[in-house]
Amino acid sequence: xxxxxxxxxxxxxxxxxxxxxxxxxxxxxxxxxxxxxxxxxxxxxxxxxxxxxxxxxxxxxxxxxxxxxxxxxxxxxxxxxxxxxxxxxxxxxxxxxxxxxxxxxxxxxxxxxxxxxxxxxxxxxxxxxxxxxxxxxxxxxxxxxxxxxxxxxxxxxxxxxxxxxxxxxxxxxxxxxxxxxxxxxxxxxxxxxxxxxxxxxxxxxxxxxxxxxxxxxxxxxxxxxxxxxxxxxxxxxxxxxxxxxxxxxxxxxxxxxxxxxxxxxxxxxxxxxxxxxxxxxxxxxxxxxxxxxxxxxxxxxxxxxxxxxxxxxxxxxxxxxxxxxxxxxxxxxxxxxxxxxxx
Length: 343
Ligand SMILES: NC(=O)C1=CN([C@@H]2O[C@H](COP(=O)(O)OP(=O)(O)OC[C@H]3O[C@@H](n4cnc5c(N)ncnc54)[C@H](OP(=O)(O)O)[C@@H]3O)[C@@H](O)[C@H]2O)C=CC1
Ligand SMILES: CC[C@](O)(C(C)=O)C(=O)O
Known about the structure:
Helix content is 55%, strand content 12%. It is α/β, with parallel strands linked by helices. The chain has a 9-stranded mixed β-sheet with strand order 1-9-8-7-6-5-2-3-4, sandwiched between helices. Helix 4 links the parallel strand 5 (77-80) and strand 6 (104-107). The structure holds NADPH dihydro-nicotinamide-adenine-dinucleotide phosphate and the ligand CC[C@](O)(C(C)=O)C(=O)O. The ligand CC[C@](O)(C(C)=O)C(=O)O is lined by residues 133-134, 192, 196, 200-201. It comes from Prosthecobacter fusiformis. Residues 3-183 form the KARI N-terminal Rossmann domain. This is Ketol-acid reductoisomerase (NADP(+)).
């Protein structure tokens, strides 16, 4: 039987009525949930550490900002919107001491609970509302009257009201507009990590860079390589998003269709699937999480170096010049700005 999809008609904000929702962290997801909920009529406060770069942005957006511990004390529902590997430390220091019976702890990704960097007491609700999209798009789509689909999950439910709270939150951030599916913390964590490593971010970034390099190394202009391997990718993926792969094929030429079905599977072949399965295994057995936590605890050296190398890839310079000719493409000051200052 197909999974139940919760939509606008299944959701109500009533479970959040009269409640204080504390959003801890005001980055990509934090700012989107906070602003969308506020505009949906929910009472939202923000919790941040002293000296947080996000504090000024949250105040400018009209929120009351408290130190994290104080926000946890005031909140009935506490959304932990802090980077995954920092959640354990924030929980120990500021959340656990103020987490009393009846409160609800909410996550938008299951990493901390699934890999047990956080072990909450049995008398608080532990739930998830995970929009299936970047926070900036969760915010943008809400303002456009659209909604990023989302997942809800219930890890523990002493109040027996957790599902209603999760659905109300998903409704307030706009997810029920796009459809909401109920899952488990384990399933969300493992599939989300798999997607971002192999297809959505890792796989796509590597595929685009490899295609650009092959064309440039063969003597073609970098501008040609950019249009072919990055710019047009969005247009093709937009068509897939609108009508599936079969729908996208409706709009491309017969020759492109033949290249797609005949040559594509030779590029992304069984060996790629084998490596995807290996990546999934390391997610399932905890190896990926262990190594990632170690990387963050030892100063992010490899992480920072790899990101820096990525920024120096020639596709970035070529792309910046070509995008500047297209004023309708949103300019994003991702080097200087705060996550929450984009909309
Ligand atoms: N990015 C996304 O679109 C998605 C994220 N998620 C999940 O959402 C959660 C948050 O991730 P994301 O939005 O990317 O995070 P960001 O890195 O964008 O933002 C983190 C926020 O937490 C603040 N922060 C850092 N340390 C503390 C602390 N000790 N106390 C209080 N606040 C703190 C940061 O402040 P400062 O500005 O000072 O650094 C910043 O405001 C994670 O669980 C992630 O997996 C889920 C789906 C998608
Ligand atoms: C694809 C990356 C993501 O999983 C997301 C936007 O859903 C993330 O954690 O940022």
